[in-house]
Amino acid sequence: MTLAIEGENLTKRFGDLTAVDQLTLGIRKGEIFGFLGPNGAGKTTSIRMMTGLLKPTSGKVLIEGEEIETVSKRVKRNIGVCPQDIVVWDRLTCRENLLLIGDMYEVPREVSVQRAGELLQVMNLAEKSDTQARKLSGGMKKRLNLALALIHDPEIMVLDEPITGLDPQSRLMVSEYIRSLGEDQGKTIILTTHLMEVADQLSDRVAIIDHGKLLVLDTPEQLKKTVGRGDVVEISLFDTSKNSQAIEMLKEMEGIEEINEIRGKITLRALNAVNMLPTIFDSLQRIDLDILNLSLRANNLENVFITLTGRALRE
């Protein structure tokens, strides 16, 4: 399959700190590529190198087969970046913001006018077309920020936390639009998000990095089958201060593959979790730990992430 972006032995050092260490991966043309890593894992540095925004200490990047040092102006125009931090011109209207970016990319004015109208409609901002950006809500600015990355109709898009900060309705709308960009329009999308369900639902493949190294790269379904196998039991105690006591006791039980505390809940994974539920319940009751809630679910991408990195994405 044709690769849109290739990174070969990418390394980036800042003084004595190695932010990215010998990273090699390829992003296929037309796929939605989920890029995940804990804070400080080297994810942002990797993306900046792979899109030509940061020069690697060693290694090389190819975009559409061209090495990044000599990449043509045409290829550069084929990349759109939606940063996590909102970047808009507050005193310009929504339409003016889009036309300004169109002019920067030398998009013919009649084309950018048409695309601006389409994007404002898609992002549910049509009624705000002539409203200055400073008067928009945070969620509206976020949607405008995404539209700015798309005005020049790039083939490769880097979307850094595009869903964060949106209300549920807008989150669904933007998620569906991102999916359509990949599935219907054949765009190549690099997606970073701390919302694991979003990465799971949208990504064709997911790369997880930590300490600047690639830990795993595969489809979400394959990762859930091969990393952290089994089902997951989530336990909420009435007294969360006793979570550590419960974890120490449960660690001694045979058959438990992994146990963690995540956002105040005890999360354990086991291959025969269903059959273990009565034993888990009785063991906690025996040491006077009252259960507020106990639930069973299938392994998900967040559990894969925790198994590989030892922590939740936002830790």
Question: What features would you describe in this structure?
Answer:
By secondary structure, this protein is α/β, with parallel strands linked by helices. The protein is 36% helix and 29% strand. The chain has helices at 43-50, 73-77, 94-104, 109-122, 138-150, 168-183, 196-202, 220-226, 243-250, 273-286, 301-309, and strands at 3-14, 17-28, 32-36, 58-63, 66-67, 79-82, 156-160, 188-192, 205-210, 213-218, 231-237, 256-262, 265-270, 291-298. The strands form three sheets. Strands 6-7-8-3-9-10 form a six-stranded mixed sheet. The radius of gyration is 23 Å and the shape is globular.
Shape: globular
CATH architecture descriptor name of the largest domain: 3-Layer(aba) Sandwich
Fold-level CATH name of the largest domain: Rossmann fold
Biggest sheet, open or closed, and with what strands and sense? Answer: 6 strands, mixed
What are the segments in which pLDDT stays under 50 over at least 5 consecutive residues?
none
Structural class: alpha/beta
